[in-house]
Here is the input.
Amino acid sequence: MTHKSKWLIFAPLGLATIGAGASMVHWAGSLKEQRQPASRWIMAGTAALVVLNSGLSLFGRGVVEKVLHELREKPGGE
Here is the structure.
C-alpha cells in the first residue's frame, strides 16, 4: 500500500472518528445533566474520550503518510 493510499484512508477516517468522539463527549455531558447515575456518564465519557483520541491518532497517522508521500514524490527525494 502506498503512502498516498494510506493518507487517503487515515485522514478522512480520523476526521470522522474525531467527530464521533466529540458527539459522544456531548452525549456523556448530557447524561450528567440528566442526573443519570455516575457510573453511566463516567463510562460514557471514558468511551467518548477513547474514540476522540483514537480519531486524533488516526488523523495524525494520515498527516505522517501525507508528509512521507510528498517527500517521496518530490524531485530529488528518496
